C-alpha cells in the first residue's frame, strides 16, 4: 500500500477534486479521483435527480471491497475518493461492508474523502464513521418543508404526507447543524433551475445558518429524472449568480461547479462574470472533474464510467482493467479531445460534457480563444 502523506486543509486555494492543479502543474490530465456508486437505494425520489432512473427497491450484490481496494492501490496518483448513490447511508450493510472499509483505506493512505448524503436519516447513523470523511456533501434546493415535500417525492410513485416530509426536512437541517458544530465540513449543493434560481440567495442564507462551510452552485444536469426539466437561460444563470455574489455571506466558501460560462465567450457580460468570480474572496470555480481527473465505479457490476450520470458508455471493468489504463483510454476518445481544451492565462480547462451539449452544441472549444487574462495572483 502507498504510504500516507500529510494532508493540506481544504480551502478556496486547495480543492483536491479540481483537475486544474494537476493539469497546470504537470501539463497533462491524471487520474487523481475515484468515485464509487455504492448503492441504488434511496428514501427520496427527487425531481432533479440525475441518477433517478437507476434507483431500485431492493439492493443488489456488490463486489468484494478488497477487490476494489486492490485497484485503488494501483493508482499512484490517487488523491481523493468519493462515495455516492442512491443514499449511501440507507443500507447498514453498505455502510459496514463498503463505506467504512473504503474510508479506512483512504485514511491510511492520506486520501481526501467525500460522501454524498441527503442527511435525512437519524444522526446516530452518521456519528460512528463521519470523522473519517473530509467532505459531507448534501443537496439543498428548498425554501422550506413544503418545497422539500414536492421536490423530494415528485417521482416517488406513492403519496407521502406533508407531515412525514416535514419531519425529514427538519431532520436534515438539524443534522447539518449538529454535524457542523461537531467540526464536520458540510458542503451544500444547489442546482440552478427555473424553480431555485429566484430564491438562491435565501437558500444561501439557510446554508449559512446550518453552519455549512461551503455552498456549491451547479447547473441542473439534464439526465434521468431531470431530463425533462426546463433549463434556465444563460442570461438568467448569469444574473442569478451575480445576485448571489452581492448578497452572500462572505464567510461561506461558494464553489461554482461546471460553470456554463467561459473566458472565450463572445458575450462581454460572460467574460466580466468570469473575471469577477476569480477576483472574489472565498469564491472558486471548480473545473469539471469527470474525465479530467475522475472516474466512477459501479460497485455492483464493476463497470467504470467517466461519470455516474450522462450517456457515455462504460469504459472498462475493474475485474479486468487497471483504472489508470481506463483513464488513458478515455483521454483518447473523441469526446475528450473535443472538450479538453486548456487556457492557462484565463485559468480554464473547458466545459462539462452535459453543459456543452445543452448550451454550446455548435461551439468548437478547441478553436476558440480567451478574451480575458487573469493575473498571476
UniProtKB/TrEMBL annotation:
<keyword id="KW-0411">Iron-sulfur</keyword>
<dbReference type="InterPro" id="IPR058240">
    <property type="entry name" value="rSAM_sf"/>
</dbReference>
<keyword id="KW-0949">S-adenosyl-L-methionine</keyword>
<dbReference type="InterPro" id="IPR031004">
    <property type="entry name" value="rSAM_YfkAB"/>
</dbReference>
<keyword id="KW-0004">4Fe-4S</keyword>
<keyword id="KW-0479">Metal-binding</keyword>
<protein>
    <submittedName>
        <fullName>Radical SAM/CxCxxxxC motif protein YfkAB</fullName>
    </submittedName>
</protein>
<dbReference type="InterPro" id="IPR013785">
    <property type="entry name" value="Aldolase_TIM"/>
</dbReference>
<dbReference type="InterPro" id="IPR007197">
    <property type="entry name" value="rSAM"/>
</dbReference>
<dbReference type="InterPro" id="IPR014866">
    <property type="entry name" value="YfkB"/>
</dbReference>
<dbReference type="Pfam" id="PF04055">
    <property type="entry name" value="Radical_SAM"/>
</dbReference>
<keyword id="KW-0408">Iron</keyword>
<feature type="domain" description="Radical SAM core">
    <location>
        <begin position="26"/>
        <end position="255"/>
    </location>
</feature>
<dbReference type="Pfam" id="PF08756">
    <property type="entry name" value="YfkB"/>
</dbReference>
